[in-house]
Structure of Gluconate permease:
Amino acid sequence: MTPADYRLILAAVVGIALSIILIIRGRLHPFVGLLCGAFTVGLLAGLPMEETAKAVEKGAGAILGGTGLVVALGLGLGAMLQLSDGAGGMARAALRLSGVKGAPWASLFTAIVIGLPLFFETGLVLLLPIVASAAAALPTGQNGDAAKLRLMLPALAGLSVVHALVPPHPGPLLAVNALGANLGLTLLYGLMIGIPTAIIAGPLLARFTAPGVTLNPPLLDPVKVDVATPSVGRALAAVLLPVVLIAAGQAVALLPPNVAVHFHWLSWVSDPVVALLVAVLAALPLLFGRRITDRTIQNAIWTEAMTPAGGIILAIGAGGALKQVLVTAGLSDMLVRVADGGAISPLILAWGVSVCIRLATGSATVATITTAGVMQGLVAASGVEPEWMVLAIGAGSLFFSHVNDPGFWLVKSYLGTDMAGTFKTWSIMETVVAIVGLLLVLLASSIF
């Protein structure tokens, strides 16, 4: 490594540290804190101010171009499932079928299904109050705090895993685009890695972390409008439609040419923005029936969806700006040289960079966006399959959620745990997801 490399590393560390201080101590929004960090990195790395500003604009613009639509449409679909109580109906049906002994497993797999098209925070607000109510209704002697947590923690594990590893969530979707990965294969591999990871970090780990944690009364249930709860089949169709469309479009490439020509239209329907738009349009009659033209319902859906959308989209855009400044300053090229020395596996290196950015910024999506951007050169130089790189980055983006992560406080509120209990349950669970996910990625990438 050259003196310029050390200067670049110092610039990155100082810039990210400044972002942390501004976000945590200064109480600034992550959007402002990350932008300040991006400019600091550029200046300390020796980039002219004009070049730094252009990198910030390029990075933010590239990220917001398509991802803003994905986030907005995903939040819209989540709002529909929340307001119609469609997600609640699915969760209650699964918990009724499973019985007391199988309830943690029902909670886990319901979260995986419901979480497929939804942003993590949306899935959390939708699902956790329902699971908490089911936990409170457990038979006498089986509804203590530890038993309740053994029901709620698997739901969090399921939501976390699909958020970090499975498109069309914004983080993995952006990593797929940045690294040139195959979307269908990433979705398939993400589920293949994610399900066993969620099992280990959810029902199995909860047996050890739940005992001894005390719960406070949970928050109120999420908002609901006065409509009949849709059937489980209708709600499930709305949830799975975007995933099915994306998978179907990728599957066309596997068909014989004379057959594939008749399904060419699936290639554009499988675009994540188009798939989510189709799902939103289909969800309206599926979840609200004839009341889809009711002005009150339409206003409630988009008010509920757009309220959190602005902050999420701005934070993601600022993460893209930070990524582009790091790339422009030469961090991507430096990582390629480090990996070429053979001292560390490219997958472990990508995971480690993602972990560092996650710990610094508190955002899994920002960690994924930033790491994927600086790893583009490494994917091309190392020959590693980009799908496994996407998943290694996604796993690292979950490592040890703590006080600079908005999700930490949201989980704390909905679980009803104190600070120590939140660290013992949620933070440890996220760390286990990150480590187990990496180990399974390393294992699977050596086989397939």
Observations:
- Residues 64-445 form one domain.
- The mean pLDDT is 84.
- The two ends are 34 Å apart (CA to CA).
- Residues 145 and 251 are 45 Å apart (CA to CA).
